[in-house]
Amino acid sequence: MDIPASFDLENFLSAESSQLKKPAPGVKWDPTTKNWITEDMQGKLKKKQADALEDWRLETDLAKSGLSTCRRCGHKIPKSSLRFGYPVEDPRGNLGAIIIWFHADCAPFKFLEINGCLQGLVDGDSEAPSEGSVCDPSEWFTENMMGFEGLTDENKEALLEVFRKRHEKKKMEDLDIGGMKQMVSQLLVDKFTPPDELVIPLLAFQREGLAWMCNQELTKECRGGVLADEMGMGKTIQAVALIMKRREETKGPTLVVCPVAAVMQWYSEIHRYLKPDSLKVHVYHGNKRLK
After folding, report:
1. Is the distance from CB of 69 to CB of 87 less than 8 angstroms?
2. Transmembrane ranges (predicted)?
3. Per mean pLDDT, which range of 152-156, 209-213, 232-236, 246-250 is the poorest?
4. Gap between the Cα atoms of 195 and 188, Å rounded
5. Residue 85's beta-bridge partner residues?
6. What pLDDT was estimated at residue 65?
7. d(C-alpha 30, C-alpha 33), whole Å
8. Residue 73 · residue 17 · CB < 8 Å
9. Does pTM top 0.85 for this prediction?
10. How many Cβ atoms sit within 10 Å of the Cβ of residue 114?
11. Residue 131 in contact with residue 115, Cβ under 8 Å?
């Protein structure tokens, strides 16, 4: 598969593009402070402020600056362009809720539907609506999305079109899943080349394993992983290559925990795989633990 010249690996592999945060349950909008208020904080408000809270689930507006980042694709949202967002729990602690933003075209309506945020909304292609549901998304958006009513007709239609497309399914034969996996694997291999200190060249599948591990270490939400393969397939040399590849970014030494029977094997293989004096190795076992 040919890799498009415009393909952005950093954004494609970004955790933000694949691991969306769930909407915060029961939040309300405070027009006085212009903040989203979580359920546990609502009970701490004075009655006048609590009575003024508004029941919005989503928000849309024109970006006030070019600083906000789309949490789906990872790109900046240009100033004055249409954006869409929903409140999530503040990751910094018990500080309430914050809004996360998306390009209008990136609005994750399917994700929000699965997580119950679009409750009460069905489209014309769905089964018979239940009591309390509405078939007109424009009506539902007006009642549940802060800022929607004030949009121009063109911007309203842009969001509605994204919503309508959420159930479109491509035929399986049209989806080149294998080709996509191959493309991503090749991009990773090209991005994370073996360290210069390695004196034994890696086989193709070992380079892919190294690239995968390097990428895992850069992904905060899912750092680490399990490298599992049959004996003799080169797990040790891949691990050694990873240690050297991440050496500059890693503070302090790397601890290798292994069975006693494998301690000297690790020691000798590290020296065999690397150029002399590339890595200082200390065996923390027996009387050597006191050194």
Report:
1. no
2. none
3. 246-250
4. 14
5. 59, 101
6. 92
7. 6
8. yes
9. no
10. 11
11. no
Distance (Å, whole) CA 209 – CA 203:
10
- Kindly state the tokens that stand for 119: 């409750």
* pLDDT tens-digit map of 261-278: 888 889 999 999 999 989
What whole-number distance in Å separates Cα of residue 159 and Cα of residue 137?
A: 10
The length of the chain is: 291
Q: Which domains does the chain have, with CATH numbers?
A: 19-170 (3.30.1740.10), 197-273 (no CATH)
182 versus 23: the higher-pLDDT residue is 23
Between the alpha carbon of residue 215 and those of residues 86, 251, 264, the distances in Å are 29, 18, 29
**Residue % of the chain over a pLDDT of 90:** 33
